[in-house]
Specification:
With about 140 residues, the chain is mostly beta strands. The chain has one domain: Roll (BH3618-like), CATH 2.30.290.10. The strands form two sheets. Strands 3, 4, 5, 6, 7, 8, 9, 10 and 11 form a nine-stranded antiparallel β-sheet that branches. The longest helix has 7 residues. About 20% of the residues are buried.
Length: about 140
């Protein structure tokens, strides 16, 4: 077990169980290993904490919680980088941004593909999508 000091305090983690980004994240290519933080509160959001830079963490969510028709299927090259084949599960998550205005957005133009079997993840850029890197959460309609 190893320990890092982070914005969440001291974190003990097993290097064998880190979430690995072989290519890093867009804009953070040098950050390869992350710890998935336990979800302390009910809800669709969770954190990944960088092992390489303990001051850096990202909020992620399953975008289908908000956009039911959102679907990304990894291609052969992406599956190869993730170390999986067509029969393996591949989950899709999005980076969440919470600016000071509290107008939360999801990066649906560059989702993260996650392969649970290999514990590898890859951020990809979607070409020709109607979604943007700052896709707002859908408005909740008041039913009263």
């Amino acid at each position: 077990m190893k320990t890092i000091q982070s914005r969440f305090g001291e974190i003990e983690y097993d290097p064998e169980n880190t979430l690995q980004f072989p290519e890093g994240l867009i804009g953070f290519e040098n950050l390869r290993d992350f710890v998935v933080m336990p979800n302390e509160k009910e809800g669709p959001l969770f954190w990944i904490q960088s092992v390489d830079d303990p001051q850096l963490a990202f909020i992620l969510t399953d975008p289908t919680n908000f956009y039911y028709d959102y679907k990304v299927v990894p291609d052969g090259r992406e599956r190869q980088k993730l170390g999986i084949d067509e029969n393996d599960d591949c989950l899709v998550v999005s980076v969440v941004t919470v600016p000071p205005s509290r107008k939360i957005t999801l990066n649906l133009a560059a989702p993260i593909l996650f392969a649970p079997r290999t514990n590898k993840a890859l951020q990809v850029i979607l070409e020709g999508t109607q979604f943007s890197p700052q896709t707002p959460l859908p408005e909740v309609k008041d039913t009263k």
